[in-house]
């Protein structure tokens, strides 16, 4: 199977909208991400059919809690058969390493575990309201190195930080980047953005793209155009 670089963020309010989209695409064209909106509405019902159809599914619930709770939540996600799960790096090294240990001893095929650094909807001003005197780049780098030291597979960051992280992290460390906007598409609430070709050139491993595909007049064509551009 082709290791498609595009992970489509399936942020729908209805299962029928998810099914309509999924019926148009295949695992060779894209991976799929189920996040907080669909999972809160529908739980495993939104995930399992996609896994059964052979899609690599990124279950994006961004766990951030005490180590024991996060480790058990990651195992519950793994038991759904997903390809990737995530936590917030700001939960700390102990939270991250305990989650990885729990996944490794769970037996079933281990999903990739990655950690969110600084959300792509944040700029320096927003970051400073939480962590004063640190640039976005420094904060992303600090959290990425902490994630790597904690034994995880990679991070969620923006493509704007990919070049820096490629120079300080291991070659196989995954850089998964939302905030991807093809030329001319609506930016919405994303701030640290790049186009698909720019992101791939910066060294990202996978691009998470939602509305530019799912809200397009023809989602399949939008996805095919992106695939052709990278
Ligand atoms: O972890 C994520 O996937 C994530 C992290 C982040 O920093 N920024 C971010 O946008 N996301 C997710 O990526 C998707 C982006 O969707 P669009 O903005 O519609 O392309 C959404 O489902 C977000 O929840």
Automatic annotation (TrEMBL):
- Superkingdom of the source species: Bacteria
Q: Does the keyword Lyase apply?
A: yes
Pinpoint the Orotidine 5'-phosphate decarboxylase domain residues: 5-226
Is the Glycoprotein keyword given for this protein?
no
**Which PROSITE patterns has this protein been placed in?**
OMPDECASE (PS00156)
Classification via SMART domains: OMPdecase
List positions binding substrate.
11, 33, 60-69, 120, 181, 190, 210-211
Enzyme Commission numbers on file:
4.1.1.23
Extract the GO molecular function terms from the UniProt entry. orotidine-5'-phosphate decarboxylase activity
One of its GO biological process terms is:
'de novo' UMP biosynthetic process
One cellular component (GO) term of this entry: cytosol
EC main group: lyase
Q: Which keywords does this Swiss-Prot/TrEMBL entry list?
A: Decarboxylase, Lyase, Pyrimidine biosynthesis
**Part of which pathway?**
Pyrimidine metabolism; UMP biosynthesis via de novo pathway; UMP from orotate: step 2/2
Residue numbers annotated as active site: 60, 62, 65
Protein role: Catalyzes the decarboxylation of orotidine 5'-monophosphate (OMP) to uridine 5'-monophosphate (UMP).
Q: Which NCBIfam families would you find in this protein's record?
A: PRK00230.1, pyrF
Family statement: Belongs to the OMP decarboxylase family. Type 1 subfamily.
Quaternary assembly: Homodimer.
Q: What is this protein called?
A: Orotidine 5'-phosphate decarboxylase
- Gene name? pyrF
């Amino acid at each position: 199977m082709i290791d498609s670089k595009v992970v489509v963020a399936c942020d729908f309010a209805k299962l029928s909208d998810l099914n309509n989209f999924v019926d148009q695409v295949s695992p060779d064209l894209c991976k799929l991400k189920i996040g907080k909106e669909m999972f809160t509405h529908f739980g495993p019902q939104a995930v399992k059919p996609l896994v059964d159809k052979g899609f690599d599914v990124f279950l994006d619930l961004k766990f951030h809690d005490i180590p024991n709770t996060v480790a058990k939540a990651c195992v519950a996600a793994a038991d759904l058969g997903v390809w990737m799960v995530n936590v917030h790096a700001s939960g700390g090294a102990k939270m991250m390493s305990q989650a990885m240990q729990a996944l490794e001893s769970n037996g079933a095929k281990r999903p990739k575990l990655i950690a969110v650094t600084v959300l792509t909807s944040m700029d320096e001003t927003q970051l400073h309201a939480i962590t004063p005197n640190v640039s976005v780049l420094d904060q992303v780098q600090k959290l990425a190195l902490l994630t790597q030291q904690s034994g995880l597979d990679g991070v969620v960051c923006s493509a704007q930080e990919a070049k820096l992280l490629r120079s300080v992290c291991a070659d196989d460390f995954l850089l998964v980047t939302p905030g991807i906007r093809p030329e001319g598409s609506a930016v919405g609430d994303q701030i640290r953005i790049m186009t698909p070709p720019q992101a791939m050139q910066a060294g990202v491993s996978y691009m998470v793209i939602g509305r530019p595909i799912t809200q397009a007049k023809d989602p399949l064509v939008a996805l095919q155009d992106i695939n052709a551009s990278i």
